[in-house]
Amino acid sequence: QVQLVEAGGGLVQAGGSLRLSCVASRRAFSPYAMGWFRRAPGKEREFVTSIDWSSGITYSKESVKGRFTISKDNTKNAVYLQMNSLEPEDTAIYYCAAQPDGRRIWAYWGQGTQVTVSS
To answer: What is the distance between the alpha carbons of residues 79 and 63, in angstroms, rounded to a whole number?
Structure first.
């Protein structure tokens, strides 16, 4: 079993920045991909961005392109989400997730971290 532990959420004013981190607990864990999802109040959970572990190819929701950047550190089994130009609409619980293999199933999830953007 792999545990994903997120950190870095908080309260920020619109236009500000936050950096989220997510570390996988198992040292030998080599995911196929890791990513970030979010759930805003009263809405369904949605995909935000992901990165393929070997190639570094990234995928992102259209509304965050140019503002959010996902990156990884293979040596630390960590993935990061740099969020700039935050908007009140970005307010949500952000979840880290991992795909263990090429079946592309998000099998592992973190507990979530709250991001609140005030206007």
So the answer is: 20
